[in-house]
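USER:
Class, as today's exercise, take the chain set out below, and explain how the chain folds.
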Amino acid sequence: MTQLIELMKPIRIGSMEIGNRIVMPAMGTRLGSDTGSVTERLLNYYSERAKGGVGLMIVEATCIESQLGRHAPTVLCIDNDRQIPGLNE
């Protein structure tokens, strides 16, 4: 039981405080757009996990060079400034 109590305690990492110690690792959802941008569906995916109690989410694999490194059509990319607003969300 003590372990569960510790799991739900807030923790500080540098200047950031996380509400609990539950971490969601990076996963490839393939919910990006065909241009590699964030979609409403992807935002909803992360929002639902946050509502479920995840303290820290590591965002999925994101391609830094879409012409060479994209392994699927709907993988997120960060090789163009037009993708920044969605990633900011």
